[in-house]
Write a structure and sequence with these properties.
Number of strands: 14
CATH class of the largest domain: Alpha Beta
Largest sheet: 7 strands, mixed
CATH architecture of the largest domain: 3-Layer(aba) Sandwich
Number of domains: 2
Number of helices: 10
Oligomer: single chain
Helix content: 25-40%
Radius of gyration: 21 Å
Distance between the termini: 45 Å
């Protein structure tokens, strides 16, 4: 079904229609992939729904036998139709045995539904993982968010770890770290809430020291709280515009980067830092300076978005002493990873 849908889209000649249908097809496939991923990890999860779009997605998952009919579905409003044989009212649902709540496309602009969900979870299971494609309510602060065994401090001015993108990336970085065969120093650029670097540190035995770098001061504040919660001691956090405030003498075996992915302007304060790289200014500055912080033979990785770029977009930005050695697609998503090594 997925392949036929994308093939159909690729054969359309009208660019506008093609772009719209491609986006819809991609969103649908990504969401179904997320369900597959949760089941593969054997997580006990529930789905939250308060919109027709989310309802249709759940029905699609059941129809294609990705979801079983008795999957717990939490509904906020009575107008949501019965989605499975296991529908639950939010007020009556027991979160105590649930590891993760998947909430996709929560109806807007009414944020009270989401606020009610957060409050209910906070009362029963404050460390539950939220797989949330929406923003936290504006008045929310210091919520605990569970991701790959670590607990993160998150608020309305920070972004959430995204399982279906960074899980694969973290797994790849773990393999890369182990391939060094020794203790290494790692820097995580555009660290956000720190989930990429901290997951690698937590899951690999070969990280001697980790630097987390981000330009968003709210992310930095939350990262520091996260380090205290998880009792990490071999981590340094830097509030920095790229490498500006990273000590010049620092040298790393591995530098990972999850940069903004689109050559656009974005008026939203949080997503502008996360998404917008007008004229690829960040990429040019990062790639122009990264070898100054890499040991000889050191590796830099970037996770990028095919909807905003291709490898050809960045090739001319790489300095002569930084060679692209591999490119990998992130399975079932529009993301890809660039690997480059300092000569």
């Amino acid at each position: 079904m997925k392949k036929k849908l994308m093939n159909f889209v690729s054969n359309i000649n009208n660019p506008l229609i093609k772009k719209t249908l491609k986006k819809l097809a991609s969103e649908k496939q990504i969401s179904l992939y997320q369900f597959n991923d949760l089941i593969a990890k054997n997580l006990s999860f529930a789905i939250y729904s308060n919109s027709e779009k989310a309802s249709n997605l759940i029905n699609e998952g059941i129809k294609n036998k990705i979801l079983v009919e008795n999957i717990p579905v939490i509904v906020y409003n009575s107008h949501i139709p019965t989605l499975s044989t296991n529908n639950h009212d939010l007020d009556k649902f027991d979160f105590s045995t649930i590891e993760l709540v998947f909430c996709n496309d929560v109806a807007k602009p009414d944020a009270s539904d989401l606020e009610s969900l957060y409050q209910k979870i906070s009362q029963q299971n404050p460390t539950i993982t939220l797989m949330d494609n929406t923003a936290f309510p504006e008045n929310h602060s210091d919520r605990l968010f569970k991701f790959r065994g670590l607990t993160y401090s998150i608020d309305s001015k920070t972004v959430l770890p995204t399982h279906f993108i960074v899980d694969f990336y973290i797994d790849e970085l773990n393999k890369l770290v182990e391939s060094f065969g020794k203790k290494i120093k790692m820097l995580d650029m555009c660290a956000g809430q720190g989930c990429i670097g901290l997951s690698v540190l937590n899951e690999s035995k070969n990280i001697q020291n980790l630097f987390l770098v981000d330009i968003n001061k709210f992310e930095i504040d939350q990262m520091k709280k996260t380090l205290q919660i998880n009792n990490f001691s071999n981590v340094d956090v830097f509030h920095s515009n790229i490498f500006e405030d990273v000590p010049e003498q620092s040298q790393f075996h591995l530098i990972s980067c999850n940069p903004p992915h689109f050559d656009v302007d974005d008026n939203q304060k949080i997503t502008n830092l996360q998404r917008a790289d007008k004229n690829w200014e960040f990429h040019r500055n990062f790639l122009g300076k990264v070898t100054n912080f890499l040991k000889s033979g050191g590796i830099v990785t970037l996770i990028e978005n095919k909807e905003g770029s291709s490898i050809e977009t960045f090739e001319e930005m790489f300095p002569k002493n930084l060679k692209i050695i591999d490119i990998k697609d992130v399975v079932n998503t529009q993301f890809y990873i660039i690997y480059a090594q300092k000569l």
